[in-house]
Amino acid sequence: MKTFRIRFSDLPSTSKLFKDFIYSPGAMAPWLGSDFRDPDGYKQTADQLLRDDFSRSELGRILAAQNQEFGAPDETLSNIDLIQNHNALCAITGQQVGLLGGPVISLYKTISVIKLARKLSDLLEHPVVPVFWLATDDHDLAEVDHVLLPTKEGKLEKISYEPIESIEGKPMASVSLDVSIRGFLDSVSDALTDTDFKSQLVDLLKSCYSEECMIFASFARLLLRHLGKHGLIVVNPADARLRLLTKDVFKQEVSDFEATRESIKDTDKSLLDAGYHLQVTRPEQYTNLFMCEDKRSRIGYRDERFYVDGTDREYSREELLASIEKAPDSFSPNALLRMVVQSKLFPSVAFVGGPAEIAYTAQVKGLFSIFDVVPPIVHPRLSATIIESRWASFIEEHGIELSRLPSYSSREAYLTSILDARFPKDIDALLEESQIHSIAEIEKMRDVIESDSGLVKTFEQTRKKIDYELNSFRSKVLKAHRKAHDGFSQKFRRLAEHLFPEQSLQERHYNLIYFANKYGPAIVDTICNKLDDETYEHQVIRL
């Protein structure tokens, strides 16, 4: 297996903020603090965390109970013990709980945090354990209720899970699978090519995703089956026991709403003034809290009263604080406050995220000081595209530049330039000119034989035969040219769609099961071993 690179700066989807984060050390310091490449930043953050108090004993008990329920191996439970009893620090990441593990980006994130935890353990000479935060507060069902699998034609087939009763708007923490999951898994099985690994893979999926199982628990079980042996800890933040540990954050958000609003407003302005985008935008009247009952609803503030979006309920500040005190599990943070909640619960020396997460973490700058928590060092996740051997050979044979394939317009312009170089536009004119020249040369022989009528007759027959054969040859050349042109173009476009489906990175669409079905369960270890954690560019892995 060989590993290649694509510079993020060559990908049209890369934002200015992420480019500066990767290529201009220190450029994002006003919003993200120490650069992720600076060892001293981790040491200083670790020193601060080790001086702070965390509810390690209770946190450890909750994590142990959750992970045992998820079927975690001994390596995971040993790392929980390190948090609980040995002052271990954490490297943390997270993702939505997509069906069957979601897009392969979830795997890359997890591998990223595992590798970083090991590296930081060596750097700090202190245990650092990997933690995966399940996005169970998320309520966008459309982003997690399906898998995308490539067809033989190179297109993506969407297979969706359709529950009997609507769960739209519900946080994933409260969504359980119903009998419809059986039909969904059967459809997935039918879509997978028959291989030596298919039966084992489908059995694994059915053991994790079954009727009446919570969707986040299914995700956690599958993730731990893949990577639990590396000591990965999985956490469901919506657990009522964890909400108790973070209720003071929720209460402070209500008490200091004006301060948190102004802090975010000021930070947002500074980002915009610097030419960066805002990943999270929201009207100023909304707090950073949701109320979670049957559905997840935003909490707003107007006329000195708090209200629940979409309802007629209103609260004074004191009433809302009392509600949080009484039932903290009825509340959840938005994406911005979640960063604070994570750092309140876990001694997080590093947070691993992709471009979008890094962008909204930049908006949180002022909240860490307001809530008196230590901000983690923000570290980019590993990013990769997998190229199978059949495509790798095509790429190498034709010297295809992958950075020119992401968008339809760029790939079509590139294809045209390749075809122009391989097949001259005026090939028909060249063939016609050659034919005319050849016949003209033959005609010169007529003067030599014109006195012999028999030879002239033979000459005419021969010239006609030569003209016929040249016409036939010309037709065959043009036909072969068109065939090669069409065949190459078709394969080129399929390659581009395979690597950049829907003009986006493969990692955001393909599910791991596509590769696991073709290459077996060892594909996870292969990817883990071959992903290079010394580079911050997009990697291309050849199978």
Properties at a glance:
single chain, 543 residues, alpha/beta, 22 helices
What's the overall geometry?
Answer: elongated
Q: Give the tally of structural domains.
A: 2
Structural class: alpha/beta
Rg is 31 Å
Q: In order across it, which strands form the biggest sheet?
A: 6-3-2-12-13
What is the CATH homologous superfamily assignment of the largest domain? HUPs
Low-pLDDT segments, ≥5 res: none
Helix content: 40-55%
Count of DSSP E strands? 15
Can you offer a commentary on this structure?
The protein has two domains: 1-281 and 335-402 and 505-543, HUPs (Rossmann fold, 3-Layer(aba) Sandwich); 408-499, no CATH class. It has helices at residues 16-23, 29-32, 39-51, 56-69, 74-85, 105-124, 180-191, 198-208, 215-227, 240-255, 257-273, 317-326, 335-345, 355-362, 365-370, 389-398, 408-422, 427-443, 446-449, 453-499, 512-519, 523-530, and strands at residues 3-6, 89-95, 128-134, 146-150, 156-160, 233-235, 286-292, 296-302, 305-308, 314-315, 331-333, 348-353, 377-380, 384-387, 538-542. A hairpin with a 2-residue loop joins strand 8 (296-302) and strand 9 (305-308). The protein starts with a strand and ends with a strand. The strands form four sheets. The protein has a five-stranded parallel β-sheet, with helices on both faces. Strands 10-9-8-7-11 form a five-stranded antiparallel β-sheet. A three-stranded mixed β-sheet has the order 1-15-14. Helix 4 packs antiparallel against helix 5 (74-85). It has 543 residues and is of the alpha/beta class. The protein is built from 22 helices and 15 strands.
